[in-house]
Amino acid sequence: MIKELIKDISYDKISLNQALTRAKLIAYKIDNDEFISWISRELNGYDDLDIIPEYRELYCDIVARVENPYSGTRLVPIDLTEFDRSIDGNLYKFNYTLSIFGVEQNLEAVKHSNEQHGYIDFPIEIVRDISKLVQQNNISAVSRKMQFSQLHNILSITKQRLLDTLLELNKAFPDLEDEYMNDDKKDTASQIITTNIYGNNASSNVGVGKDFTQGISNSYTEKVEQVLNDLRQLGVPNEDINELESIINNEPDKNKLGAKFLVWSSALMTKAVEKGIDVKVPEVLDAIQNLIV
Q1: Which of 70, 154, 213, 254 is the most buried (most CB within 10 A)?
Q2: Cα-based angle 240, 245, 246 (whole degrees, multiple of 5)
Q3: Residue 103 lies in a domain
Q4: Number of structural domains, the chain?
Q5: Ordered per-residue pLDDT tens for the chain, 293 residues
Q6: C-alpha span between 87 and 89 (Å, rounded)
């Protein structure tokens, strides 16, 4: 089973999605939760509370679609680095949580085109705030511009981590199908998987199990309460704090919170200037950033 899979992966006889699906059988055979968890996330996509592997952190440029009655529509780079730095934000990088099948499908769709970049649009409310920020009212869309080569990199690294793990498992357990996995052998398999999937310094319980997820959830709830209290001390009006709390409670997709926090912060800054509210804006932005890191 494992030898045939190694051969099929090495000679590109099967897709990575198929390879991971077959590897799941091996993960259950050796009864290793970390291997099962990693494979499942790569096959099904990563959830909001999952720890995202570093190879799925992508970098991008920001471009605006500018409408001009004379020259038509064109995409132009837009510099938000100062604003991004002021909020210690993540405008220029994001976590790619799509399943491996989704990554393969995206790349297949552009395989025969000359496109080198993909675009991920910001919500319209973000577009409005950015238009005000750069003082251009002819912007109809703002997007992250990413290179498709980064998606190839996700496939390549995932494939190599899977292959390295299978090769070492095969070396340690050449008769895996017939072997009985006692505790010592399970520990050996766990060390192999931890080293190849998560790195030498990884914790043996990274991202695995209900208790781990619950710990993150509790920790985040405590962080939210602390941030809301800090905002009150910084002079943020109660109505704005209540609005922020509502955003947090009503948005289950944590990846989308960063964009909504950006809208909220922008509106607060505008309100502070227009109405002369004594709000310590830099400290407020720092506090908000604690909710998206």
Answers
A1: 154
A2: 95
A3: no
A4: 3
A5: 789 999 999 999 999 999 999 999 888 888 888 899 999 999 999 987 788 899 999 999 999 999 887 778 888 898 888 877 776 667 888 889 999 999 999 898 888 777 888 888 888 887 888 888 888 888 989 998 999 999 999 999 999 999 999 999 898 888 776 555 666 777 787 788 878 777 644 433 333 333 333 333 455 677 788 888 888 888 888 888 888 888 888 876 665 676 677 777 767 766 665 555 666 666 777 777 666 54
A6: 5
Residue 223: domain span: 210-289
Long-range contacts of residues 40-43, Cβ cutoff 8 Å, at least 24 apart: 41/207, 42/99, 42/100, 42/158, 43/17, 43/99, 43/100, 43/101
> What SS3 state is found at 207?
coil
Are 183 and 260 within one domain?
no
Please, where are the H alpha helices in the chain? 2-10, 16-29, 33-44, 81-86, 100-109, 124-134, 149-172, 183-193, 210-233, 238-250, 254-275, 281-289
| Domain annotation covers residue 105 | no
φ, ψ of residue 75 to 5 degrees: the values are: -95, 130
Residues 171 and 27 in one domain: yes
Whether 204 is in a domain gets the answer no
pTM, rounded to two decimals: 0.61
Question: Positive or negative, the Cα torsion across 85, 87, 88, 90?
Answer: negative
Rg over alpha carbons for the chain, rounded to the nearest Å, is 23
How far apart, in whole angstroms, are the C-alpha atoms of residue 18 and residue 10? Answer: 13
Report the alpha-carbon angle 224-225-231, nearest 5: 90
How many residues in the chain?
293
Residue 255 domain-assigned (yes or no): yes
